[in-house]
Every structure is written in C-alpha cells, then in structure tokens.
Design brief:
Shape: globular
Largest sheet: 4 strands, antiparallel
Number of helices: 7
Number of strands: 4
Structural class: alpha+beta
Distance between the termini: 20 Å
Strand content: 5-15%
Number of domains: 1
Helix content: 40-55%
C-alpha cells in the first residue's frame, strides 16, 4: 500500500474532493523518507545550495536511499502523478527523477531550459548509469 489513509480522510475522499493540504499531509506522514528527501532538495534550491549550469539553477540528490523501504517510498511518491503533482505544487518547483533515487528540483521558470531538458533526456538517463545502480 502506498499511503496510510485515515478513516476520516478516506470518508472525505469518498464524499468528494480532498484539498492539496490534506493530501500532502497524508503523503508526508505515509512516506517520510520521500518527503524529507524532496524537502531537502527544495531547501537546497531555495537556500542557494544549488548546482548552476549557465544561467540555470537546480538542486539534486545523488545519494541512494539507505534501504529498500526508503527506496520504495521514493519510487511510490515520484511515480504517482497525483503525489508528484501535489509535491510540485506544494513546494513550487518541478521535480525530475532518475535511477530510482536521483531527485532534482528546478524552479518553474527553468522548465524550458537546456539544463532541464538535458537532465530529463534519454542521454541524461544513460549518462547517469553505473554498475552499482543496476538493481536499484
């Protein structure tokens, strides 16, 4: 199961729409490793601890998760359109994802940049491969 959904939140979803804030709270508490990692990358971006390629700034994580449970949380959070979209709206960034652990945060203004396009390209994915990441 991806999320630990309370009875109250489930009842609310069955009755109609759920707010982003309620959904984000559920994601935050259900997938704490994923939440913390995305929060850290976004904090790096907004705090100026970001990589810079030309005029494009972004922040990313290159450290693999500590265990399979953490890896699973990250995969579930970023593979789900609804969770990923809610995280992007909450933090005001565009998230990019490679190799089941490399999460990058780009300012929304940089989504059309060469750096962003290179990061999400097939070439970028291939260049980010290594033997130790084959089973990730």
């Amino acid at each position: 199961m991806s999320l630990d959904v309370s009875e109250d939140l489930l009842a609310k979803a069955e009755a109609g729409e759920v707010s982003d804030a309620e959904f984000i709270d559920c994601v935050k508490h259900s997938l704490p490793y994923a939440w913390e990692l995305v929060n850290e990358v976004v904090s790096d971006l907004k705090g100026g601890v970001a990589a810079s390629t030309g005029s494009t700034r972004f922040a990313d994580n290159t450290t693999p998760p500590p265990d399979e449970q953490a890896r699973g949380q990250l995969l579930r959070a970023l593979a789900s359109d609804s969770m990923r979209g809610a995280l992007e709206r909450h933090f005001g960034v565009k998230l990019a994802f490679q190799n089941c652990h490399r999460v990058a945060a780009f300012p929304l203004s940089e989504v059309d940049s060469d750096t962003y396009r290179k990061f999400i390209s097939p070439r970028g994915q291939l260049l980010n491969q290594s033997p130790e990441l084959r089973d990730c």
